[in-house]
């Protein structure tokens, strides 16, 4: 927070404080006293004193240094806004320890750079999907969806975002308070989509009635949550339950279903899906976790790997091999169940676990669906998972487009904004086209899913499309440079800053090292691609010929 007794100064007054130990600077009409901070400045003292860099701005600008003369949106004698924003994220000035360096404002100047208020829409072109862009219309979303979106965004930016950034830093799991807040608004329940589990709940303070909630609302929730630049944190924040709970809701006995739903939707206990193993990923029929029927119940022995949110989960929806084929069981943490964190490249806050089941006794009532064709229970779950991952993927790519657009316009190279380079504009054009087309396709599919109430054919089509969208965005798409195989566009736009954990490119760095994961999770991309085409071929009419 800025000091309260702010004074008004002229540039001439500021210019007198231009040396080490007595250094004032002007950023966006605000006067900062850096006299004590300058020796500790992370970018060094010298830059702050170097008039040629425009960093001793009051002095430099009064001298009309070239930087200020280059048509960068500043008039000579004004301030060092461009120099600052070419090197720092806006949030630096919002940090209390830096905000309090402000001692006043420049007479007659009014700040022109403002942080976007929590919950509001971004005005950066393409930073929002078309349906949220002023002047555009949507065949799917109504005014009520808009109100819902505003409420979810506010929640995400006020409650989730600060915790996500902090947890990505310290590697701890998402805070209990965030789960509790999600429970209070019923976001935990709504994230699973429409259904019986919403009955009697007050959704988002009453913004939508339980029977009114559609898959389009779920799309809004997923896409708003995915704007948070912390992919791993999102996984820790209940993405495990997103896939682990549906089989319980659809196949468990009413008593078990209601107990686990109550505990999860109130934010008390967590649920994970435990299918993949060191031995089997996409080829789930080869699992080596064995369930044996005994008079007292099922006995389960085996291991599970890459279990999202598993370190914190109480319940695991587990795919097992049985004498009859496959069976899915709900296993509660207890004797014989152990979880160990897996160190991943993407985030410790995802709670990715290696789970061991050592001769665990599981009551017969915990069986989900029939013994033998358990594979069908597992596979049916993948459809919703892929759709959700695609919705998240498109949204997080949009955030990257926004970051790149901002950076390319505020960063100066060779005396000009980066955006003045045609090659940068070409990369941005490709990224925008892919994000926009992916979102359009996603909305079409979502609408079909909504109308057909998870009709299998649409869902199969959705899965094929989802694979394509993810490939488009990651492998050949938003990340790639057109006409060459030189890698991700966002890396080229941000340069070395895309590799640093702090500063301008920190979100790009985090995005880049998690970007490919959605092509693996929920079934490897190429396997699902192939499945999509095989299913299309199944639907080919026998009589068609060229
Ligand atoms: C209120 C004034 C300022 C504050 C509070 C401040 C603070 C910081 C902080 C916290 C960083 C670390 C990186 C980050 O977190 O973004 C940084 C880096 C830096 N700062 Fe400043 N700074 C100020 C003004 C300036 C000015 C006027 C210049 C010169 C034009 C400057 C040049 C740099 C440079 C060159 C870096 C390193 C950037 C990089 O590694 O990419 N700073 N500053």
Task: Give an overview in words.
Helix content is 43%, strand content 15%. The strands form four sheets. A five-stranded mixed β-sheet has the order 1-5-4-3-2. It has four domains: 7-106, Cytochrome b5-like heme/steroid binding domain (Flavocytochrome B2, Chain A, domain 1, Roll), CATH 3.10.120; 132-229, Acyl-CoA dehydrogenase/oxidase, N-terminal domain (Butyryl-Coa Dehydrogenase, subunit A, domain 1); 271-372, Butyryl-CoA Dehydrogenase, subunit A, domain 2 (Beta Barrel); 383-538, Butyryl-CoA Dehydrogenase, subunit A, domain 3. By secondary structure, it is α+β, with helices and mostly antiparallel strands. The chain is built from 19 helices and 15 strands. Bound molecules: protoporphyrin IX containing FE (HEM). The site of protoporphyrin IX containing FE has 22 residues, from strand 3, helix 2 and helix 5. Protoporphyrin IX containing FE binds next to strand 3, helix 2 and helix 5.
Instruction: State the end-to-end CA separation.
Output: 71 Å
Number of E strands: 15
What does the radius of gyration come to? 27 Å
Low-pLDDT runs of 5+ residues are 52-78, 454-458, 475-486
* Secondary structure category: alpha+beta
Q: What is the CATH class of the largest domain?
A: Mainly Alpha
- The best one-word shape is elongated
What CATH architecture of the largest domain do you see? Up-down Bundle
Cofactor: FAD
Domain Cytochrome b5 heme-binding: 6-107
Organism: Mycena chlorophos
Keywords: FAD, Flavoprotein, Oxidoreductase
